[in-house]
Automatic annotation (TrEMBL):
Span of domain CggR N-terminal DNA binding: 20-86
GO terms of molecular function: carbohydrate binding; DNA binding
Stored InterPro entries: CggR_N, NagB/RpiA_transferase-like, SorC_transcr_regulators, Sugar-bd_dom_put, WH-like_DNA-bd_sf, WH_DNA-bd_sf
Family: Belongs to the SorC transcriptional regulatory family.
The protein's name: Central glycolytic genes regulator
Alphabetized PANTHER family for the sequence: CENTRAL GLYCOLYTIC GENES REGULATOR (PTHR34294:SF5), TRANSCRIPTIONAL REGULATOR-RELATED (PTHR34294)
Keyword entries, A-Z: DNA-binding, Transcription, Transcription regulation
Domain Sugar-binding span(s) in chain numbering: 93-336
Length: 340
């Protein structure tokens, strides 16, 4: 009946629903940046200072936020309300229906949508990472091994993961890519292991080595061989998704390799595999670790990616993946729903 009530309220008081949405978004920004001033809130929310002042005055009188010398902060009651407010927000924007639609069309186990657009909203990106972290946290007590890819989104997941005592082993899903140390899978694996009171193992293999070199390394280095085996049999796989053109630049692919991507219609990349809109892998980089097409053998698969600019990339990768949970944002989900 809750959803029925919301639909009725939307019809008879659409202006009220708009107010609810604005106040929820302000509370979300306060939660992420507290204590925060009204001028800053106006800047990150896109609302005028006058509107922000009116909303937060009501929220203060209701005991949801408090004013301090440093800025506006959530009261304990406000913090406790946030999960229920998120559910209401999803229903108000029919995002719960969109979750089910995308899940069915892409044949996934679950789809989770957070508000906003990661392309332009830092709060949305933070919430995307936090949602991925909470999904991972819920699984840690029941598993022995987690494999995670690199990238800024995975770094965000590691940063927002709650501390626990699961003692899980964490390994990188594949070898390294790029020059940003903080975004390397090895570093992210170590951060997650630290928060889980667990252990971590590193793969000291860069992306793009020849197949013959990789074969020699695997034959001669038993430690690397062991870590690769752990990654392939990990109960939980967590990875990000990138646009094929951006990832081609990041990996500094050759002209002939880029031609393969263009000829194959590549749109998205994950775990070294470049996929087209049908989910076909048109090119894969040489590396050790998990392949996108092997994920059906892992118990829990979680892909985390957002931003409207990544919509086509997400479709391509999740069609190739054929399984798992997708965590994305409102903007990407809206584009995905139009395209599938």
């Amino acid at each position: 009946m809750k959803q029925d009530f919301l639909e009725i309220f939307q019809k008879i008081a659409p202006d009220l629903m708009g107010t609810v949405k604005e106040r929820y978004l302000l509370l979300r920004h306060i939660s992420d940046a507290e204590p925060v001033g009204r001028r800053t809130l106006a800047g990150i929310s896109g609302l005028s200072e006058r509107v922000v002042r009116a909303h937060v005055d009501v929220l203060r009188r209701s005991g949801i936020v408090r004013f301090t010398t440093m800025g506006i902060a959530l009261e304990p009651e406000g913090k406790a309300m946030m999960p229920d407010l998120l559910e209401c927000f999803l229903r108000l924007n029919r995002l719960d229906e969109m979750q089910q639609y995308i899940r069915q069309k892409l044949r996934l186990k679950e789809v989770c949508i957070v508000p906003g657009n990661c392309d332009s909203d830092k709060t949305a990106k933070d919430e995307l990472s936090r949602k991925g972290a909470l999904l991972l946290a819920d699984l840690l007590d029941g598993v022995k091994t987690v494999a995670i890819s690199g990238g800024s989104t995975m770094a965000g997941v590691a940063a927002t993961l709650p501390e626990n005592a699961s003692g899980v082993a964490v390994v990188p899903a594949r070898g390294g890519i790029g020059n940003r140390v903080e975004f390397q899978a090895n570093v992210i694996a170590a951060q997650i292991a630290s928060k889980a009171n667990g252990t971590y193992h590193m793969l000291h293999i860069p992306d793009g080595l020849s197949e013959s070199t990789l074969r020699v390394m695997l034959r001669s280095d038993m430690q690397t061989k062991k870590i690769v085996a752990m990654a392939k049999t990990a109960e939980v796989i967590l990875f990000g998704i990138g646009r094929s053109d951006i990832m081609a630049d990041r990996r500094e692919l050759t002209v002939s390799e880029r031609k393969k991507l263009a000829d194959g219609g590549a749109l998205g990349e994950a775990l070294g595999s470049y996929c087209n809109v049908s989910g076909e892998v048109v090119y894969a980089t040489n590396n050790v670790g998990i392949s996108l097409t092997e994920l059906q053998h892992n118990l829990h698969v979680i892909a985390v990616a957002g931003g409207s600019s990544k919509a086509k990339a997400i479709i391509a990768v999740m069609r190739a993946c054929h399984t798992g949970t997708l965590v994305t944002d409102e903007a990407a989900a809206s584009e995905i729903a139009k395209l599938i």
